[in-house]
Specification:
This protein is of the alpha/beta class and 150 residues long. Helix content is 33%, strand content 22%. It contains five helices and six strands; from the N terminus they run βαββαβαββαα. The chain is globular. It binds flavin mononucleotide.
Amino acid sequence: MRVVILFGTEIGTSEVVAEAVAEELSSFDVSVFDMADFDPADLDVSDFHIVVCSTYGDGDLPTGAEPFFEQLDATRPDLSGLRFAVFGLGDSVYGDTFNRGGEIAAEKLSACGATQVGEHGRHDASTEVRAKDMAREWAVTLPIAVLQSA
Ligand SMILES: Cc1cc2nc3c(=O)[nH]c(=O)nc-3n(C[C@H](O)[C@H](O)[C@H](O)COP(=O)(O)O)c2cc1C
């Protein structure tokens, strides 16, 4: 099973996180893509997907992830069977919109029939914990090995 990591970012933290997750999962066949350069038509339901996505504006997707999700909404591909996990980035100072970016990503993929697995990670930039450290710990809890042997 290939692991495809898609990151959506405004100023780059999610890219650093995506690379750290890739390193943590290096025993798998892992590829990392910026959502800004990834066509939803290239999603393969047999791959395991990890979405690393921050939050901008007023609880919105980061600019880098917008074209991907606009295209997904427009084409509504059947993603039944596709499994994905989400690690979201946000900042609790934003209150109600905390980590909405990753949640929107999960909602949009689920609306196309994909299934979210594992814990939904939510990094808070207001804490002392570095996003990439939290993401590494999160990555090892993902059920990829289980899915691979299923
Ligand atoms: C202008 C601006 C708006 C933001 N809006 C939100 C928000 O609505 N909710 C949230 O949880 N975080 C928000 N954030 C925090 C970012 O999501 C957080 O800093 C994240 O780590 C940035 O990741 P990135 O560098 O990959 O874009 C905002 C940050 C900025 C600078």
